[in-house]
Amino acid sequence: MSFFSALCLFLSLLLTSVSAQDTSIILPTTAAPSVTALATAKGYSYVGCWNETVGVPNSNGARALSGGMSSANNTMTVSTCLAYCAQGYNGATMQYAGLEYGRECYCGAYLSAFSTQLPNASAHCIYACDGNGSQICGGALALTLYNLTSASSSSSSDGSRSGVPWSLVAGQSAWFSAAAVVMLGVAAVL
């Protein structure tokens, strides 16, 4: 197989991985003043509204919860994010879970030292969750942050269960990218 053929194969697999991602973004809406953060769920407890660190000097663009997992979708709720983080990476439950911009979920074993609790949560963590308008899912560069405080369970404090196969949703683009690399390796051998 020629270099050109291998390059075409790689590009087609790359385009497939991009097209498999959810590209329709629902813009966040400001939550009603009466909406408050979910206190506990899935073994996590609410710890406040914390700043995102991508724009903080000397952070090198790292996120407040980097090195873990992330997911974004138009049906995000606090419970689904916490269930995703409780599922963990390679069986290791993530210590922190943070929601941002109404539809983003970040999980990490550590919280960046550049992230600080914002003094007025109601001024920063203002977006309703795209999947449940009665829950708070962060703000622009602001995380509604949860800390793992007890063993997680399959149901949240509000009685709901997450039937979403998060390993498929979150790992989909990684799967296609890995497949592309494998195919490129096979093409190089041929």
Task: Outline the structure in words.
Keywords: Glycoprotein, Membrane, Signal, Transmembrane, Transmembrane helix. It is a single-pass membrane protein. Residues 43-149 form the WSC domain. This is WSC domain-containing protein. It comes from Friedmanniomyces endolithicus. This protein has 190 residues and is of the alpha+beta class. It has a domain at 42-148. Helix content is 29%, strand content 20%. Strands 1-2-8-4-5-3 form a six-stranded antiparallel beta sheet. A two-stranded antiparallel sheet has the order 6-7. The longest helix is centred in the last third of the chain and has 24 residues, at 166-189. The protein starts with a helix and ends with a helix.
Low-confidence stretches: 8-21, 152-181
What is the straight-line distance between the termini? 6 Å
The percentage of residues in β strands lies in: 15-25%
Which strands sit side by side, in order, in the main sheet?
1-2-8-4-5-3
> What's the gyration radius in Å?
19 Å
Q: What profile does the largest beta sheet have?
A: 6 strands, antiparallel
SSE pattern:
HEEEHEEHEEEH
What is the count of helical runs? Answer: 4
Mean pLDDT: 76
Question: Assembly state here?
Answer: single chain
Number of strands: 8
- Share of residues in helices: 25-40%
What shape does the CA trace take? globular
Structural class: alpha+beta
